[in-house]
Each structure stands twice: as C-alpha cells, then as structure tokens.
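Hello Y.,

Per our agreement to keep a running log of every chain we model this quarter, I'm adding this entry. I've kept the format consistent with earlier entries: sequence first, then predicted structure.
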Amino acid sequence: MRPREVSATEAARSLGDLLARVRYRGEIFLIRRGKHIVASLGPSPVTGVTGRVLAERRSARRRMSAREAAGFARDVGRIRERLNVPPKDPWES
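Predicted structure for the entry above:
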C-alpha cells in the first residue's frame, strides 16, 4: 500500500479518522507542511507484551558470566567517557 500525502491542516482536522485507518486498514500517511514532508503516520512496529511473557523471557535468558559482566561494565564505562556522560544516580529525582 502506497503512503498517502495529507496536509498538516487536514491531518489536524481528521486525526481520529486517520488513526482509525492506520489501526484497522494499516494505511500510511505522509504529513506535508507547505512543500515538505514533515512526518509520517503509520502502524507502530512496537507490539505489547504481557507481564507473563516478560517473566518467561527473563527466566529463559542466559546469565552473563562474571568475566562477561566485567567486560560489559568496562565497555559501558569507555562509551560514557567518550560521550562525556556521567553515570546516572538511580536515587536522584
């Protein structure tokens, strides 16, 4: 199915209808402002999962060895240094 172009004004006025068409028909819309495409509206590639599925996936996952975990921590530290990103304090709000 080819994407259909709609103006930003048309998209704003008929957002509910466009969302229904995306959800039930899988249509894709390209939103144009002036002469430029500024956004697209289409089906999300993200699918929801239940808590049970997440728990099953977690329990089936292989744990990292101590050597792998140390290497992973070292790699993350190097990346943070290169990006100059300080570690996040989980207790900071």
